[in-house]
Amino acid sequence: MNTTATDLLLIQKDSTWDQIDWIVPLSKAIEGLTAEQAAWVPPSGGLSIWQMVNHMYYYNHRLLNRLEGTTPSQPPADSNVSTFGDSGNPQDNEGWNQLMQDLNTVAAGLREKIASIQPSELESSYMDTETKWGHELARWVLHDAYHAGQIVLLRRQQGSWNIVF
Questions:
Q1: What DSSP string describes the chain?
Q2: What is the mean pLDDT of the chain?
Q3: What is the mean pLDDT of residues 94-111?
Q4: Residue ranges of the DinB-like domain (predicted)?
């Protein structure tokens, strides 16, 4: 059996979302976080975990909409920086839990859509650009892996990382 480009994207998607292999997947990086931990900003400044998850959710949701051929329900962001939003409310466990549920829903939808992509579709133009869908999806997987690593580092800084693989 040949491994297709779609198969490779699924392997990468699974490895960056929930399969523990060479890197910490995003679902494990955020597992067990409270709103207080997610809203924490390092004393030296920077982003909170909540902000990173907002950012990933924004882009993942838009990507899912595009894969489904639908118009994104969220308006375009003013800038990449605006996709991070504010640092989050440490007392808003309901809001944090809703964001986690939404992120899980989008992750499942993305996996399902990627699994249904024919390899030939990966050669089609992404949003009327010269970029191919396969290239865009490969970059997207790296984007999520990058931010998952940042989340692990933030959790180590705040002392909430106790997961051993």
A1: -PPPHHHHHHHHHHHHHT--SSS--HHHHSTT--HHHHH---TT----HHHHHHHHHHHHHHHHHHHHT---SSPPPSSTGGGG-----TT-HHHHHHHHHHHHHHHHHHHHHHHT--GGGGGSBSTTSSSBHHHHHHHHHHHHHHHHHHHHHHHHHHT------
A2: 92
A3: 96
A4: 26-151
Residue 60 near residue 107 (C-beta atoms within 8 A): yes
* 107 found inside a domain: yes
Residue 124 falls within a domain, yes or no?
A: yes
Strand partners for 125:
132
The whole-model pTM stands at 0.93
Convert the pLDDT of each residue in 28-48 to its tens digit: 999 999 999 999 999 999 999
The structural domain count of the chain equals: 1
Name the one residue in this structure whose structure tokens are 């939003």: 85
Q: Which domain holds residue 152?
A: 5-71+81-158
